[in-house]
Amino acid sequence: MTRSLTRSRQLQLRAEQLLPGGVDSPVRAFRAVGGDPPFVARAEGAYLFDADGNRYLDFFGSWGPMILGHAFPPVVEAIREAAGKGASFGASTAAEGDLAELVRRCFPSVEKLRFVSSGTEACMSAVRLARGFTGRNFVIKFEGCYHGHSDAMLVKAGSGVATLGIPGSAGVPAETAMHTLALPFNDLEAVKAAFAARPGEIACVIVEPVVGNAGTIPPAEGYLQGLREITERDGALLILDEVMTGFRVSLGGAQQVYGVKPDLTTLGKIIGGGLPCGAFGGRADVMDKLAPLGPVYQAGTLSGNPLAMAAGIATLRELMAREGEIYSGLEKTTKAIADGVAAVAREAGVVLTTNRVGSMFTWFFTGEPVTDFASAATSDTAAFGRFHRGMLEAGVWLPPSQFEAAFVSTAHGATEVEMVVEAARKALVNQVTS
Ligand code: PMP
């Protein structure tokens, strides 16, 4: 298939004149994989349609939110109804309490929460709150984890930061970055050593419980429990960044899957059903340090936006009503995709390591087990780029970086499994012959 991309190319040229790199978020550019991104005109279920009318099987799902597929009718209807009543009031609504109740039912560790408009804000605010609560300055994060683009979190971060090789972003003062300690993921000894070096000085450990932003990396057995024990012993807070994993790896996120209770949790993506929304929450005694009750300031003109609340409520209601069926279905579909493509890679003689937790997964072009950012970085990113281009040509749109997770939705079924395996067969054979 050779697609016509005439309209997308015109739109790209215009965008490059107006937006740096032609994009509003660097991960959307195809710099790491080559080629130019199609411009999306609309989406439905598991498919994206570009401005030239080409159809793609979508494996990034707006980077996670679209767990029910695109334009899921109850979500569309909820947004339509809310929009008819007014887009924003800057005053409290019942919908905020409705969504908060649903979140708390899914995440029992979240006694109180506050809505924000992005995952970045959720993580930035949670870290500020942890510092305010503990009166300490240092923060531990892990190499290859991404917690949004606030200054303190842009140290050895994953996602676009890793893709573009910008481990310490320009514009972040050294005085800020020095309070962020970036350690290797899945290495409890490194965490113990950091606490031993700075007892009583570390405010929090923030972690993606299943890393998605270095590609998918599951926690080693006992790792999250170890983080819980070490932080508790020192009086530091444990923040689980479940912006990606929340409502994704299970309804109650990774904390439900791995049985660990954090002090604070950050949420985003699925919680807003595709509209801009995030949240942070956890222990009531910690959350009550926030203004207007406490001294830690945090605010937002559009926080708890009625449209975002409506889309989030409709999404969570669906996930809660059909929890068993949805998560076992996602597991089955994603396993079939992972197994199918692994078999095709073996036949083609391509070395591939597949990491998967539920419906998030990554194909790494390395023979090594991928357990942290260093092992993820052994992946042959040029081979990933060729694979990405081959898959796109075959009508399958993967996240355009080795250091990102792919996502499956409830709209992906047997037909889509077959499509992606067949596309991989072509793309991987070309790997070997090109
Ligand atoms: N945390 C995690 C784990 C994420 O995956 C992301 C976004 N990919 C963020 C935080 C930041 O969220 P946002 O892009 O909505 O600011």
UniProtKB/TrEMBL annotation:
One short Pfam family name for this protein? Aminotran_3
Q: Which GO terms describe its biological process?
A: protoporphyrinogen IX biosynthetic process
User: Required cofactors, per record?
Assistant: pyridoxal 5'-phosphate
Q: Which GO terms describe its cellular component?
A: cytoplasm
Q: Name one GO molecular function term.
A: transaminase activity
Quaternary form? Homodimer.
The text of the family note is: Belongs to the class-III pyridoxal-phosphate-dependent aminotransferase family. HemL subfamily.
Q: What is this protein called?
A: Glutamate-1-semialdehyde 2,1-aminomutase
Q: Which organism is it from?
A: Edaphobacter aggregans
Q: Output the lineage of the source organism.
A: Bacteria, Pseudomonadati, Acidobacteriota, Terriglobia, Terriglobales
